[in-house]
Structure to design on (441 residues):
């Protein structure tokens, strides 16, 4: 018997003996005993198969492989075969994950998942190298520095995208609507995420943009509301909450942000494998926005925690959702530390909105669907008095230069979805405001 098989057998004796001892005081039927013995024997056979493969690989593989590498790879293979979000985190990955939730880390600035063997961009993070380079939600990364992604695990692909600050990486991207793959070169940088930004639109609308849900998000939103109120005073008619391309983050922050806008009721429920694993989180009394109308912007890059917020506000009819359907990541991952061996990320539950809707693979449908659009002025050549030779009061060169500058301002990109949100808020404010924005009276 090999050393590995001996250790494996010792573990199995303990694992199977413990439940047997626990059942001594219970009455177990002959049929149950027979079924249990059959299951135990089958498990022994499967683990024995694993031991045989392990020994063959370490003895005969073309290159030497350490026991640690084989075990970690086997564990990761077991986890990633379950779903795209379960995985093994070694010590370095675990440390990186902890740093990311604090809002500062190194890399490109994209949230990714694995789909059909390729890395799929859930969302680029605002003001990061990937965002500035033009990476978009829904892009598929097929090659990294001309090396194919196919065959890599998600963690391996992410590791290749990380690197020393200032170094460059070439991403080959397949994008819907593009005839050919796109090559995008990105320079790695320190990613400092300011999760909340705000401004006042047209002197009477508070605009709040949440880029991700990290440990600073709740306080960031509260601070934004406070400053918007101070700047607008009595003129404030409502808020636009922008969750577009927000890949999610911490569950407790999503709950806290939802609570800021709600006065009562359930925010989200998480339901696991067993009924006793169900957990419900409810809002506490106090709406910091004083019942002002809210329009929430979402799109295909809005995932996980941002779907919890938008789903809660939609179900309570506290906000109108505008944009396009969200990503549909409605599963809960629990980080389970493995002392001395990093951690495992395991999917343990699903999210449900207050009305009982599952987010998983379905997403959140907006109340008003508005696709992102580019507004262009149609160029029409018209004659005017100024075009006539010798016309009186003809524009001076200075006026022409001013008109040219005005034209340049007009050519700046316009956020069509935000414009529609602002129009909607003004329409709602004309008919009075209250906490119930029922679209189907």
């Amino acid at each position: 018997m090999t050393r590995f098989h001996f250790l494996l057998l010792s573990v199995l004796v303990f694992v199977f003996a413990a439940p047997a001892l626990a059942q001594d005081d219970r009455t177990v039927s002959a049929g149950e005993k027979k079924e249990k013995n059959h299951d135990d024997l089958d498990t022994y056979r499967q683990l024995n198969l694993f031991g045989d493969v392990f020994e063959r690989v370490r003895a005969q593989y073309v290159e030497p492989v350490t026991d640690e590498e084989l075990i970690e790879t086997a564990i990761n293979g077991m986890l990633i075969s379950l779903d795209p979000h379960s995985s093994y985190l070694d010590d370095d990955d675990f440390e990186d994950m902890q740093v990311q939730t604090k809002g500062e880390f190194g890399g490109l600035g994209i949230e990714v998942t694995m789909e059909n063997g390729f890395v799929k961009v859930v969302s680029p993070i605002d003001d990061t190298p990937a965002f500035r380079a033009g990476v978009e939600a829904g892009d598929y990364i097929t090659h990294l520095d001309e090396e194919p992604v196919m065959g890599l695990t998600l963690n391996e692909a992410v590791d290749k995208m990380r690197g020393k600050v200032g170094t460059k990486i070439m991403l080959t991207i397949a994008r819907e609507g593009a005839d050919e793959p796109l090559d995008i070169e990105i320079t790695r940088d320190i990613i400092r995420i300011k999760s909340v930004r705000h401004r006042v639109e047209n002197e009477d609308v508070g605009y709040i943009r949440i880029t991700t849900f990290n440990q600073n998000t709740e306080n960031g939103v509260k601070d934004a509301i406070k400053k918007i109120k101070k700047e607008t005073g009595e003129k404030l008619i409502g808020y636009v909450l922008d969750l577009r391309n927000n890949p999610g983050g911490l569950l407790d922050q999503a709950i806290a942000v939802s609570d800021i806008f709600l006065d009562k009721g359930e925010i989200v429920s998480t339901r696991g494998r067993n009924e006793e694993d169900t957990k419900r989180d409810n809002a506490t009394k106090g709406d910091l926005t004083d019942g002002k109308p809210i329009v929430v912007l979402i799109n295909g890059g809005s995932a996980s925690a941002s779907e919890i917020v938008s789903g809660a506000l939609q179900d309570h009819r506290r906000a109108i959702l505008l944009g396009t359907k969200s990503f549909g990541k409605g599963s809960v991952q629990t980080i389970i530390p493995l002392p001395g061996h990093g951690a495992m990320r395991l999917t343990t539950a699903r999210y449900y909105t207050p009305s009982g809707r599952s987010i998983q693979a379905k997403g959140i449908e907006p109340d008003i669907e508005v696709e992102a659009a580019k507004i262009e002025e149609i160029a029409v050549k018209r004659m005017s008095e100024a075009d006539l030779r010798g016309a009186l009061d003809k524009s001076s060169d200075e006026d022409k230069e001013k008109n040219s500058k005005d034209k340049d301002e007009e050519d700046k990109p316009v956020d069509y979805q935000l414009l529609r949100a602002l129009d909607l808020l003004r329409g709602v404010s004309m008919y009075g405001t209250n906490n119930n924005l029922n679209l189907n009276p």
Remarks:
- The chain has eleven helices and 19 strands.
- Residues 7 and 70 are 16 Å apart (CA to CA).
- The domain at 196-369 is CATH 3.90.226.10 (2-enoyl-CoA Hydratase; Chain A, domain 1).
